[in-house]
C-alpha cells in the first residue's frame, strides 16, 4: 500500500485512541484476574494480522473473520463455565452486563476478555487501514459503548474514545478529499473546548464503576460519606474511599443466642483499588448449605429500627424466615441480599450454623483446599508489587501453618498500624500503599491489606463487611448503630470453612465510636438511642456468657522445638506503632517501614496542589490534557494572539550576538515600530527617504546609519551596535509620533 501521509497518520491515530480506550479497560480486567502479557501478545498479533490482511482481504471476508473470532472466543468461554446448561449463564450474564453489571463480576472475566476482544479489535483496525474510518469508529465505538453500559468505562476513558472517534471521522474525510492538516485546526479547537467543558460538567455518562479513573479524578479525593454507606451500601462493588465519618443512628436490634458479627456480604475479587463480588445471586429457596465442618446453630431475630436495605446475620446463615423470605436472595458467596428494604419495625428470623473449631483444629487443618476455593480466593492483580509478598514472608517466617500465618499478620497489622478515619484516598494499590507508605487507616485498609498479604502466601482469604455486635442491652439482645459498620477478614480452612479474623485495632475504633455517640447525645439527637440504650451497658452474669464461637482466649501451647504456636493475645511493648511483637513463646520482629515516623505519611496530602490533586495523571488524563494544550495553541495562533505575543517580545527584547547582526536586528525593530506609528516603508523607498518622509528624529537616523555601515561596509564596532540597540529600546518606549 502507498505511504502514509500526515493526514492519514492523524486519522489512524484517532482510531488508535479509540482502540486504546476500550483496550485499556480490557487490560485492567486481565491485570486484576490474570497475566496481562497474554492479552498484550494476543492484541499485537490481532493488529498485525489486520494490517497484513487489509492489503488483500475483502470487507465481507474480514467481517466473517471478526465474527468467527468472536464465536470461537465465546465458545471457549462457555466451555470454562462450571454451570450447565452453558447458554443459560451466558444469556443471563449478557443481560446483566447490558444493564450495568460490571464485567469484573464475571467469574472468568480473563477468559471472557481473551475470547471477546480479538473480534472487534481486528475489525476496527482492518477498516481503519482500508480508510473506512466511519466503519472503524462504528466497530470500536460499539465495543466502547458496551463497556459504558457495564459501568467499566470511566468518564475519562470514554472521553478519550469519543475524541479518537471524532478525530478519525473528521480527519479521515479530509484524507479522502486530499486536504492538508491546516484544515483540521478548527477541529483541534473544538475538541479542546469539548474536553474542558466535560471537566466542568461531564457530558459522558458515568457508569457505576468505583475506580479512581474518572474525569472527576482531576480533583482527587475520596467519595466522602460515612463508613456505613461506604461498606454496607456498596452492593457488588466496594471502592476504597478517603476521609469518612461515623453515623451514630440506631439501625436495628438483634435478639440472638450468641454475640456475633452481623455479616452483610463478602467480596472475593481485589482490583488493587477496590473490591468486587463476582458471580450472580439466586432467589432463596428454603435452605442454604451449612459449613463443611462441625457447627452449632445460632438463632437470631432482627428488627429494623430505621429503614435498612440489608439482611445482617451471623455467619453462616442457612435458613431465613419471616416476611422477607420471599424477597431474600443468596449470592455465590452464600451471603444474603434483599430485594427492596425493611420498613421500620419489620423483622425476620435467621438460623446460622457457626463453625466450631479450636485453634489447635485450625492449626492442623492443612492446605488441602478445594480447587475452586484456591483458584478464586488467592488471586491478586498482576500489578501487585513483589515487595508485598516479600514483606509478608519475612513477617510470617516462623509461622508453621496457614492459621499461624493468619494470626501473625492479624496481630502485626493491629500492633503496627494506627486507626484513623482522617486519611487520603490511596493513589495506587491500596494494600501496598498501606503496608509501606502509611501509618494509619480504618477497617477497609486493614482488611484489604491482610487479605492481600495472606493471598501472597497462597492462603485463601476474602473481605467481609457488616456490623460488629453493637451495644448489648440484655443477655441475648444487641442494639446496632451505623458506626458499628465494619470490614474484617475471612480465611478458609479445609473441613472448617470460613473463619473470621479482625486486624483493625479495636480500642481506637471503639473510642472513636463512643466519641461520636457522646457528641450526638450532647446535641440532643433523637435517632441514636432506644428505650434500652443510653444507660450503663448490660453486664453479664458468670453463667450467662455463651462459649466463644471462634478461639479468642487460647493459652500458649508448647510445640516441638523450632515450631511456632501463635496465641490469641499478643502484647505490644510500649504501645508504640512499631517494634517487637512478643508473646510467651514467640517473638516477631517487625521489619522497618518506609512510612515517615510520627504519622506524617499523609500529612499535607489533602488539598494537594495541581489539577490532579498532587498525584501523577493517568495516561488517559495526560492524553486529554495534551489535546487541550494543542487545541489551545491552535486557537491562540488562529486568533493572532501568539503572533502578537511573539512580536511584543521580539520588539522589546534583543539578545546580543555579533555587532553586524545586532545592528541589522535593531533597524528591523525600528522599522516595525515606525510602521505601526506612521506607515510601512514602500518598496521603492530607501531607508533614508522613508525616515525623511515620516519626519523621524535624529535617533532613527543614527540607527539607520549604523545599519548602512553594517550592511554595505561589512563592519561596525561593538560600541556602535550597542548604541543602536539602546536607541531603538528608547524609541520603542517612546509614544510620540
TrEMBL record:
Domain of life: Archaea
Domain Transglutaminase-like: 435-505
Keyword check for DNA damage: no
Region feature Disordered, mapped onto this chain: 504-617
Pfam family, one: DUF4129
Residue ranges, compositional bias (Basic and acidic residues): 518-528
Record protein name field: DUF4129 domain-containing protein
Organism: Halosimplex litoreum
Amino acid at each position: 500500500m502507498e505511504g502514509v501521509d500526515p493526514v492519514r497518520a492523524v486519522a489512524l491515530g484517532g482510531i488508535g485512541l479509540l482502540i486504546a480506550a476500550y483496550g485499556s479497560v480490557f487490560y485492567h480486567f486481565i491485570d486484576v484476574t490474570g497475566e496481562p502479557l497474554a492479552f498484550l501478545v494476543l492484541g499485537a498479533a490481532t493488529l498485525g494480522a489486520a494490517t497484513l490482511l487489509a492489503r488483500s482481504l475483502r470487507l465481507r471476508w474480514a467481517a466473517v473473520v471478526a465474527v468467527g473470532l468472536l464465536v470461537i472466543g465465546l465458545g471457549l468461554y462457555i466451555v470454562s463455565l462450571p454451570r450447565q446448561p452453558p447458554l443459560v449463564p451466558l444469556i443471563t450474564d449478557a443481560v446483566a452486563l447490558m444493564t450495568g453489571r460490571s464485567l469484573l463480576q464475571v467469574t472468568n472475566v480473563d477468559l471472557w476478555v481473551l475470547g471477546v476482544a480479538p473480534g472487534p479489535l481486528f475489525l476496527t483496525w482492518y477498516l481503519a487501514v482500508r480508510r473506512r474510518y466511519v466503519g472503524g469508529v462504528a466497530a470500536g465505538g460499539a465495543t466502547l459503548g458496551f463497556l459504558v453500559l457495564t459501568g467499566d468505562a470511566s468518564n475519562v476513558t470514554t472521553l478519550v474514545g469519543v475524541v479518537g472517534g471524532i478525530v478519525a471521522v473528521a480527519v479521515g474525510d479530509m484524507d479522502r478529499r486530499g486536504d492538508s492538516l491546516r484544515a483540521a485546526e478548527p477541529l483541534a479547537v473544538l475538541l479542546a473546548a469539548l474536553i474542558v467543558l466535560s471537566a466542568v460538567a461531564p457530558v459522558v455518562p458515568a457508569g457505576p464503576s468505583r475506580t479512581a479513573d474518572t474525569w472527576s479524578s482531576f480533583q482527587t479525593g475520596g467519595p466522602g460519606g460515612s463508613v456505613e454507606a461506604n461498606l454496607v451500601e456498596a452492593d457488588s462493588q466496594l471502592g476504597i474511599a478517603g476521609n469518612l465519618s461515623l453515623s451514630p443512628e440506631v439501625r436495628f436490634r438483634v435478639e440472638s443466642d450468641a454475640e456475633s458479627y452481623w455479616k452483610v456480604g463478602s467480596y472475593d475479587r481485589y482490583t488493587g483499588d477496590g473490591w468486587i463480588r463476582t458471580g450472580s445471586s439466586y432467589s432463596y429457596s428454603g435452605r442454604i448449605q451449612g459449613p463443611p465442618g462441625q457447627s452449632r446453630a445460632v438463632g437470631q431475630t432482627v428488627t429494623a429500627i430505621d429503614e435498612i436495605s440489608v439482611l445482617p446475620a451471623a455467619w453462616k446463615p442457612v435458613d431465613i424466615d419471616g416476611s422477607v423470605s420471599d424477597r431474600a436472595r443468596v449470592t455465590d458467596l452464600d451471603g444474603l441480599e434483599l430485594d427492596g428494604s425493611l420498613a421500620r419495625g419489620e423483622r425476620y428470623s435467621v438460623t446460622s450454623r457457626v463453625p466450631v473449631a479450636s485453634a489447635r483444629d485450625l492449626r492442623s487443618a492443612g492446605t488441602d483446599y478445594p480447587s475452586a476455593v484456591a483458584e478464586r480466593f488467592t488471586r491478586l492483580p498482576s500489578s501487585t508489587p513483589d515487595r508485598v509478598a516479600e514483606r509478608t514472608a519475612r513477617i510470617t517466617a516462623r509461622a508453621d501453618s496457614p492459621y499461624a500465618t493468619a494470626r501473625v499478620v492479624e496481630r502485626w497489622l493491629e500492633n503496627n498500624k494506627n486507626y484513623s478515619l482522617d486519611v487520603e484516598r490511596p493513589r495506587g494499590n491500596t494494600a501496598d500503599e498501606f503496608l509501606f507508605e502509611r501509618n494509619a487507616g480504618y477497617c477497609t485498609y486493614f482488611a484489604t491489606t491482610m487479605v492481600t498479604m495472606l493471598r501472597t502466601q497462597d492462603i485463601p482469604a476474602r473481605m467481609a463487611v457488616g456490623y460488629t455486635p453493637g451495644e448489648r442491652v440484655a443477655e441475648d439482645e444487641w442494639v446496632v448503630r451505623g458506626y458499628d459498620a465494619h470490614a474484617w477478614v475471612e480465611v478458609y480452612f479445609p473441613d472448617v470453612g470460613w473463619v473470621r479474623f479482625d486486624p483493625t485495632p479495636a480500642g481506637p475504633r471503639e473510642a472513636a465510636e463512643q466519641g461520636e455517640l457522646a457528641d450526638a447525645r450532647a446535641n440532643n439527637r433523637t435517632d441514636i438511642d432506644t428505650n434500652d440504650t443510653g444507660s450503663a451497658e448490660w453486664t453479664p452474669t458468670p453463667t450467662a456468657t455463651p462459649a466463644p464461637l471462634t478461639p479468642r482466649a487460647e493459652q500458649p501451647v508448647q510445640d516441638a522445638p523450632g515450631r511456632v504456636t501463635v496465641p490469641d493475645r499478643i502484647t505490644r511493648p510500649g504501645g508504640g506503632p512499631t517494634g517487637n511483637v512478643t508473646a510467651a513463646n514467640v517473638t516477631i520482629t517487625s521489619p522497618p517501614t518506609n512510612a515517615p515516623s510520627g504519622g506524617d505519611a499523609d500529612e499535607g496530602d489533602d488539598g494537594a496542589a495541581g489539577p490532579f490533586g498532587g498525584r501523577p495523571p493517568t495516561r488517559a488524563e495526560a492524553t486529554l490534557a495534551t489535546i487541550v494544550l494543542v487545541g489551545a495553541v491552535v486557537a491562540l495562533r488562529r486568533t493572532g494572539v501568539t503572533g502578537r505575543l511573539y512580536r511584543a517580545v521580539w520588539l522589546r527584547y534583543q539578545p546580543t550576538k555579533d555587532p553586524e547582526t545586532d545592528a541589522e536586528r535593531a533597524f528591523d525593530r525600528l522599522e516595525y515600530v515606525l510602521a505601526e506609528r506612521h506607515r510601512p516603508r514602500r518598496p521603492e523607498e530607501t531607508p533614508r527617504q522613508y525616515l525623511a518622509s515620516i519626519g523621524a528624529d535624529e535617533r532613527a537616523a543614527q540607527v539607520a546609519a549604523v545599519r548602512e555601515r553594517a550592511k554595505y561596509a561589512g563592519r561596525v564596532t561593538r560600541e556602535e551596535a550597542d548604541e543602536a540597540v539602546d536607541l531603538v529600546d528608547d524609541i520603542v518606549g517612546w509614544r510620540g509620533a
